[in-house]
Amino acid sequence: MIKSIFKISLLLLFIITGCTLESKFGLPKKDKIDNDLLGTWTTPCIINQDSDTLKIKALDDFNYQLVFDTNEVLKAYSLKIKEYNIINIISTTGSNNLFYGYEVEKDTLRFYEVNPELLKGEITSEKELNDFFIENIDKDNFFMNACIMVKPSN
User: Which PROSITE patterns match (predicted)?
Assistant: First the structure.
C-alpha cells in the first residue's frame, strides 16, 4: 500500500508539480480538443513506475478532464502555438496554470515541461504569457524533461 502511494505521488510530482512553467494567467483558449489525447495512458517503467494511469476525457468541445489513479481530477485545455502542441493544466484551486508541450504518435504520448528559466520577469497578463510562448517556443531549450506515456494494449 505504501509503495503504491509512493509511486503515484512520484507520478503526480513529475507531471503536475515538476519544474514546468507556472502562471496565474492561462493561454488563450481557442482550439478544440485534440482527440489524440483522449484515452487511458500509463507510464510503464518510467521513473520506476509500474502501472500508474492517467485518463484524459473530453468535458466539452474545448476542455479536458484529467483523472489520475489517486482520483485527483484536474481540468485542462490544449492549443497549438506555431506547430507545437501545448496543454494548459489548471491547478486544483484554479489559481495557477501549468504548461506542457506534448506529442502524440500512435499509442505514445510525450509530455515536455516548459522551461521556466527562459522567463525574464513576472508574467502580468494573458497577452504577455502568449507573447512569451510565441517568442521562445522555437528555442532548443524551451521544452525539457520528457515524460513518456503509452496506451495499454487490450
Answer: PROKAR_LIPOPROTEIN
* All domains in the chain, ordered by first residue: 2-150 (2.40.128)
pLDDT in tens, 100-138: 999 999 999 999 999 999 999 999 999 999 999 999 999
DSSP H helical ranges for the chain: 2-15, 126-136
Residue in 84, 133, 91, 134 with CA at minimum distance from that of residue 110 = 84
Q: What is the rounded CA–CA span in Å between residue 142 and residue 136?
A: 7
Radius of gyration of the chain (CA): 15
pTM over 0.85, yes/no: no
- Separation of alpha carbons 16 and 7, rounded Å: 14
Report the amino acid identity of residue 26.
G
Cα gap 107→104, rounded to integer Å: 7
Residue written as cell 476525457? 57
